[in-house]
């Protein structure tokens, strides 16, 4: 019963709790026992909070005995380390802030607690959330549950690994460069990057910064789970504006999915990007999804003149991402970057050169890039008048071996035996991130080495339920999560 229940869906566990078949205290003890047994090898839970979790579980059982019910009442979950939780450290993996303990919960932690969730602890992240792997000097390295010599992904790598190992039924993470989708792809679980601005992010801020109700450009917070339906369950808890700002006047009502049956979906399938090759294992995963769509009667196309220029989109995404991420650099660091950027040849249009130039963007440069982004958003609106969803890779490869070279520019991503600049792999994540579109990461089979392979389903802005519904239907056709142990 222990093993069976550990990997049940959140929906199944909530039904069992409501039926009185199991208590929250029992589920919580089972999850903690699983973590204590298996996490030494994986290192997903970097900040355990077991005493408070057990107390919260007892409170949940007492509340249910009084007749109360809430969406997640009594359900054990985890939270990415970067979310503030009162009484626990929030470090973002940065050693100077190892002792920073916020006084209040992030808005999403509050929403989890208000929904009745039992928080088992916090999950590991890379230094400053700035990597496709999850390792830092404070908490060490999170290993991929399928192959401990490989990364679990980043920056929500701890959350994805925790779900794959049965350490709680749900988790929350964040995404600006695939940080929800890439770990899900690498670990064989599900994740949803919501439409930009759909879920408030206050309290997901680098320490020791104040938790102000400011929505960052490109970045979102979102749900992770072991099934598509569980993603929807958690998204309903997370969605909505900050109660300190737009939440004063606005409520969120997402439109329903465009279709309920697979055969009614119109899908554009992509497996090639002009800025980076797609590895054979990922290409096979995309094809597996395309075949399921065709077998289910969906209308599937491989090309469309309505698709925005992916090369231009990749450059634009890189400019917006990098210019925002380095905006807080000290002035002396900025001057050094400006000198380096000025030395670049005008003929150098590589993504490495684009990143360096973006590091010294002026406000005028950023405004021009933002104007081009609006043109891309308009092009996506036109595309989604013809299609309901776009299926494409998340990264070009399955999980790769740990690479902790302190200079990321020296790292190389091996794609079918050919090395490529490490950060070029982010361009597929940027397809949805740059225009702010929702994207659902789903398992799409295994590589020849047995590693998970995922794809993303990109949907129209604020129509998050459309890719989520397609994810549910595909789960029935091609299968979904499978435990690595």
Automatic annotation (TrEMBL):
Source domain of life is: Bacteria
| A cellular component term, taken from the record's GO annotations | endomembrane system
Query: Which Gene Ontology molecular function entries are recorded, alphabetically?
Result: amidase activity
Keywords associated with the record:
Hydrolase
InterPro entries named among the record's database cross-references: Amidase_CS (IPR020556), Amidase_dom (IPR023631), AS_sf (IPR036928), FAAH2 (IPR052739)
Query: Per the record, a Pfam family?
Result: Amidase
The Amidase domain sits at 26-466
Task: Give me the segments passing through the membrane.
Answer: none
Which EC class does it fall in?
Answer: hydrolase
- EC numbers: 3.5.1.4
Write down what this protein is called: Amidase
Q: Which organism is it from?
A: Streptomyces spectabilis
